[in-house]
Design a protein that fits this description.
The chain is of the alpha+beta class. The chain is about 35% helix and about 20% strand. It has five helices and five strands. A three-stranded antiparallel sheet has the order 1-2-3. Strand 2 and strand 3 form a beta hairpin. The radius of gyration is 19 Å and the shape is elongated.
Length: about 120
């Protein structure tokens, strides 16, 4: 409808929750289950190594998008070669902890060498 205002928030589960609390106050009638994040579904997707993006429209969760990185065919071999040369291999990523851990396992990178949920400026340091 012309002139209708639609409030849309798209981002990580943490981002969406912060945005909702920063500019919206739900009334008791708005606090339906569709306004809550489906944490069990989010956690299940993250445990499979996927990054979850939430689409919330007018306070209701409308979609969960699951994004998964694909390994380049040569990636495992490169990590193996670096380790064989005596180098420590680290992963620094903006992905969530579970997705990063899944990718590190697939690459053969030690869990202690994985730094997840890093912002761009944190990746430089």
């Amino acid at each position: 409808e012309a002139g209708e205002v639609i409030e849309m928030v798209i981002g990580s589960p943490t981002f969406v929750e912060k945005q909702l609390s920063s500019f919206t106050t739900l009334s008791p009638s708005d606090s339906s289950s569709s306004s809550m994040l489906p944490m069990s579904r989010i956690s299940s997707a993250q445990a499979l190594g996927r990054t979850v993006i939430v689409v919330r429209v007018n306070g209701s969760v409308r979609r969960l998008l699951h994004i998964e990185d694909t390994l380049k065919p040569e990636a495992r071999g490169v990590v193996r070669q670096l380790r064989d040369e005596g180098r420590d291999v680290y992963m620094v990523t903006g992905d969530n902890t579970l997705a990063a851990a899944s990718m590190a396992r697939r690459l053969g990178i030690s869990a202690q060498n994985v730094f997840a949920q890093q912002l761009p400026e944190q990746k430089v340091n």
